[in-house]
């Protein structure tokens, strides 16, 4: 059995009610639910929330909210991993044999159903226990700068001052969209960013963190252009 877990707490600080705020005509959360449904991959799509309004909206768009998330897992310090594990263990107890779990961010409007399918296929093809979406940094991280105490600048890796960019190793970062995992790897506490995982590389134009109002506005503009 495969399940999707979408964490969506009610206490977003920087963008109030972010998970259900209208994004290009739908509550933000709805885009993740619809992608999960359209993929056809899941026996259950669970939204983990502590908020009754979010719960009702999630149900309206076709997700299940079989429990309310406990308060200790709904604060600013409860990460996606512990929230996903809580939901997965609940599902294991109530639904039976859970083989695979996919945590999907509630703020991932650029996610495609095909990404979820490809991620699962990539994980099983490479015999890994985890798969997550990633994308390439647009600029060589070896050339990153820091501001010094005297307001000057210094390279983090000055040894690469004269290295040609095409000779530098590409670097990638988490796309913040989805995380496939075997149930056993969740129970065993296997870290995502490890040899146990394989990344599904996405193009940069389909990756956008949405943590501030500026992020939100940029994401809406990008989303509209992408849809057109």
TrEMBL record:
<dbReference type="GO" id="GO:0008781">
    <property type="term" value="F:N-acylneuraminate cytidylyltransferase activity"/>
</dbReference>
<dbReference type="InterPro" id="IPR020039">
    <property type="entry name" value="PseF"/>
</dbReference>
<keyword id="KW-0808">Transferase</keyword>
<keyword id="KW-0548">Nucleotidyltransferase</keyword>
<dbReference type="Pfam" id="PF02348">
    <property type="entry name" value="CTP_transf_3"/>
</dbReference>
<protein>
    <submittedName>
        <fullName>Acylneuraminate cytidylyltransferase</fullName>
    </submittedName>
</protein>
<dbReference type="InterPro" id="IPR003329">
    <property type="entry name" value="Cytidylyl_trans"/>
</dbReference>
<dbReference type="InterPro" id="IPR050793">
    <property type="entry name" value="CMP-NeuNAc_synthase"/>
</dbReference>
<dbReference type="InterPro" id="IPR029044">
    <property type="entry name" value="Nucleotide-diphossugar_trans"/>
</dbReference>
């Amino acid at each position: 059995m495969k399940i999707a877990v979408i964490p969506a707490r009610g206490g977003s600080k920087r963008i109030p009610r972010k998970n259900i705020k209208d994004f290009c005509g739908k509550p933000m959360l709805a885009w993740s639910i619809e992608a999960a449904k359209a993929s056809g991959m899941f026996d259950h799509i669970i939204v983990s929330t502590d908020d009754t309004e979010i719960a009702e909206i999630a149900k309206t768009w076709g997700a299940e909210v079989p429990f309310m998330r406990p308060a200790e897992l709904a604060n600013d310090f409860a990460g996606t991993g512990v929230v996903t594990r809580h939901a997965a263990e609940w599902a294991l107890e109530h639904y039976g044999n859970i083989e695979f779990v996919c945590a999907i961010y509630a703020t991932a409007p650029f996610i495609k159903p095909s990404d979820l399918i490809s991620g699962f296929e990539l994980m099983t093809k490479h015999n890994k226990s985890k798969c997550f979406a990633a994308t390439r940094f647009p600029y060589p991280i070896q050339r990153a700068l820091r501001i010094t105490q005297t307001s000057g600048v210094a390279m983090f890796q000055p040894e690469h001052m004269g290295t040609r960019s095409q000779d530098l190793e590409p670097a990638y970062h988490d796309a913040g969209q989805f995380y496939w995992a075997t149930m056993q790897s969740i129970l065993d506490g296997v870290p995502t960013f490890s040899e146990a995982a394989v990344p599904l590389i996405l193009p940069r134009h389909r990756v956008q963190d949405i943590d501030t109002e500026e992020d939100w506005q940029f994401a809406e503009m990008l989303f509209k252009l992408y849809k057109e």
